[in-house]
């Protein structure tokens, strides 16, 4: 199983692939599946700004397209003063696929959260869900 340090390194590599001509803000992600596979993600922007995909959701989509739907941990990295956190939309998508742990990293270090901390009661009650 990849260590958090290995996932952080994978996320920095993914960040190099970011398509961010509008914001020039590159974000990378690495998603650890329960079966040990690691899936990369980077942000993919669009001239119609609202169509932009965040790195976190690109990683989820990459994994799902590969036939993988169970995940343990997501790492997100950016070259910022404070480690960035996933936007609200991404938190909901991470919850959909049961991501348990989210690691936020910048060049200086990392902080780990449970997804429950970042998005409590993500789907409680919706369609009688948990
Ligand atoms: N972005 C991400 O990819 N993930 C985040 O957690 C925050 C923001 C992207 C979206 C957009 O391409 C750029 O960063 C600026 O918001």
Description:
The chain has a five-stranded mixed sheet. The protein has 130 residues and is an alpha+beta fold. It has helices spanning 4-15, 55-65, 88-96, 115-118; strands at residues 28-33, 38-42, 71-77, 101-105, 110-114. The chain is built from four helices and five strands, in the order H-E-E-H-E-H-E-E-H. 28% of the residues lie in helices and 22% in strands. The structure holds tetrahydrodeoxyuridine. Tetrahydrodeoxyuridine (THU) is lined by residues 20, 23, 25, 27, 43, 45, 52, 54-56, 76, 84, 86-87, 90.
Layout of SSEs?
Layout: H1 4-15, E1 28-33, E2 38-42, H2 55-65, E3 71-77, H3 88-96, E4 101-105, E5 110-114, H4 115-118
Parallel strand pairs: 3-4
Antiparallel strand pairs: 1-2, 1-3, 4-5
Tetrahydrodeoxyuridine (THU) is lined by residues 20, 23, 25, 27, 43, 45, 52, 54-56, 76, 84, 86-87, 90.
Essential attributes:
single chain, 130 residues, alpha+beta, 5-stranded mixed β-sheet, 5 strands, 22% strand, binds tetrahydrodeoxyuridine
Q: Output mean pLDDT.
A: 97
Cα shape: globular
Largest sheet: 5 strands, mixed
Going by helix content, strand content and strand pairing, the class is alpha+beta
Helical residue percent?
A: 25-40%
Physical arrangement of strands within the biggest beta sheet? 2-1-3-4-5
Tally the helices: what do you get?
A: 4
How far do the termini sit from each other?
A: 28 Å
Bound chemical compounds: tetrahydrodeoxyuridine
Radius of gyration: 14 Å
Order of helices and strands: HEEHEHEEH
